[in-house]
Amino acid sequence: MPLVEDTFFLDPNFQGSLQSQIRQIVASAILAGRLQVGEKLPSSRKLAEHLGISRITVTLAYHELVADDYITSTNRSGYFVSETAPMVPLPAISGEMETDTVDWDNAIQRKFTGGKTVKKDHNWRSYPYPFMYGQPDPDLFNQASWRLCAMQALGKKEFDSLTSDYAEQDDPELINFILRHTLPRRGILARPEQVLVTVGAQNALWMAAQILLNNQRSAVYENPGYHGIREILRHTGCTQYPVNIDEDGLPPEMLPKDFNALFVTPSHQCPTTTTMPMKRRHELLRLAKEQNFLIVEDDYEFEMSFIKAPSPALKSLDKDGRVIYVGSFSKSLFPGLRLGYLVGAEPFIRQARALRLASLRHPPGYMQRTTAYFLRLGHYDAMIKKMRTVYHKRRQVTAAALADTEMTVAGSANFGGSGFWVEAPTGVDTEVLRHRLADNGVLIEPGNPFFAGEDAPRNFFRLAYSSISVDRIPEGVRRISQAIKDY
After folding, report:
1. Which of 49, 67, 133, 225 sees the fewest Cβ atoms within 10 Å?
2. Which spans in 260-413 are helix H?
3. Is the pTM of this model over 0.70?
4. Mean pLDDT value of segment 375-386
5. DSSP 337
6. 348: which strand partners?
């Protein structure tokens, strides 16, 4: 029985050509078992008429499927699912579904759920006023140049970077750019043996914690601070010491006397965006040497410096090898890239390399090489320059809009950044506010997950301008202000 063309539907959000979409629809149906061997496909003419596209597009898609042996062409009879088409064998199912009798409470010995985290709305683009942090703006990302770099990385000359198992190694082109361009901008000099590519900054922070900590050790982190750090430290079993920050970030004099590792964001404190003064940075390094602890520096978002140059990284001031530096391309390019890097002393990087090998081997070589081309050919710097100009304008408009409300800017980066840390009036629960605003087309990030403890304040939130156009900011802020008044 021939397959009717009515079962084919085009996805308007599909990232690719019509030809590739038709090919994917048919191939996926065959692999999933929805199309069986010998079944006839709709004719190219009927399918083209049904979808409202050119017949040659359907014909070319069918020819690709024939070449890959998914379908076969019979003279004058049409196209059929090939007898030797790739298939995923499905297990035979008989009787009722099995009953789960496992005592999972006993079987699961380590639980990774239950922590306070910021929930991201995956459909945030459908909201007219998305003040979402860390999300890419399609109007600012250079998709055309990225596509060209991706095509270059797919070329025949790049076969090894695409297909090889790097094991303990990284793409030499990407490492070279990090060493010669990225790190020197932060005042850091390093050798290849001191750098490791990671699956984003989160993976880098996790590896640092796994190597440095256990249930006999202790760690300090900022409060409020990046919520992911608390979860990472919780899974190591170490003793945790949250230290309250002030208007200049983490106060060195408030550190406990005996601990092993400090996780800190000195250049762009998360989430307040405060920049730590140089005097404090030198004092942190002095205490690290005196008390024999290590520092893990998360230097996210330093590229967004449009007011003035960012302060030198803490790692650049380190003369004793006590600072482990975490950087990322995912923040400035796009979060789905998942490429970051660790910089540290060779003994530490050696262990991180072995840990990475045991857990995920290495980040995909193809993504490393594509990113290396995007960086090396100057597309990255050109895009960052454009982003700085746009962010600067958005920041000015957001600040002006907030000035006319009952909200207070509780933290903003000296050099720029992509958002504000905002305090609502006492008594306002921004988690409740978030739900009310979402019904009115506005997205914000409640601040409570950034604080340690259950009795943490609930009237803070993060207001990012990286993903909202400048003309929508005033109305979005006005709606937030009105929702607070109606609270």
Report:
1. 67
2. 278-291, 314-317, 346-359, 365-376, 379-403
3. yes
4. 90
5. G
6. none
